[in-house]
Amino acid sequence: MLKQRVITALILVLALLAAILWLPVPGFEALVFLVFAAGAWEWTALSGVSNRLVRTGYVMFILGAGVLLPMLGQQFTRLVLVCAVVWWVQAFLLLWQYPRPNPMLNKPAYLLSAGFLTLVPCLLALISLEQLPGDRRFYVLWFVALVAAADIGAYFAGKVFGKTRLAPAVSPNKTWEGFCGGLLATTVVAIAGSHLPQAGLLAGVGTVALIVAAISMAALSVVGDLFESLLKRQRNLKDSSNLLPGHGGVMDRLDSITAALPFYVLLLNLALTP
Asked: What's the pTM value of the predicted model, to 2 decimals?
C-alpha cells in the first residue's frame, strides 16, 4: 500500500510540474477542467446523490459555471472569491459544532450547493491567475509549495510532538501540535517565496501582512481537509473514490486546495491590481 501510494504521488507531482511549466494556457486550463469534472462527480457521491443523470448534470453545471463566470470580468471574479472565503468560515462553524446533529448535512441540495461554493471559486481562481500581472507559473508553484509546506509541516510536527487532538470527531489523527507545525512551515515558505525575483511585484507587501496571510491560508487548508473528512464520515466512506491508487479520489487531493486557493488568489488580486 505504501509503495503504491509513493508511486502515485511521484507520478502526480511530476505531472503537475510538467503541466505548470510546459503546457500552454489552453492546455493547462483543459487539464484543470478535467480534474474538476472528476472532483464534481465525486462531490455528488459525498452529497448522497446516486442518480447518474443528476450527477452528470451537476458536473456539467460546475464546468459551465467555470466557463461562463470568468467572462463577467475581474471585479466579479473578486466577488466570487470573497463569497468562497465566507463559505469556508461557515464550513468552519459546521466543523466546530460537529458531532452535534445538523440536519443540513443530510440534505443533498444543501451539500450540492456547498460543492458549488467549494469547486467553482477554486476553478475560477486558477483561471483568473492568467489575468494577473507577473508570472502565472510562479504563482501556481508558490501556492503548491505553500500547501505542501502546511501538509508536511503538520505531518512531522504531529508525529514528533502531537498529543492534543484537533478535531477527534472528524479526523482523529490531526493534532494541534501538527496544526501549529503546518502554520510555521507555511510561513517560512511564504517569506522565502516573497524574496524570489518573480515575486518582485509584491515588494510592497509588509512582512507582518505576509505572515498573517500565510497563517490564514494554512488554517483554511485545514478547514478544507476536515470538511471533506466530515462529509466522508457522514456517508461512511474512506475515500471520495478509488481513482488514484493509494490516495483515494480527486477530492482527497483537492480538499485543502479548494479552501486555500480562492483566498490566495484573492490576496494576489488585491495586491497586484487596482
From this structure: 0.93
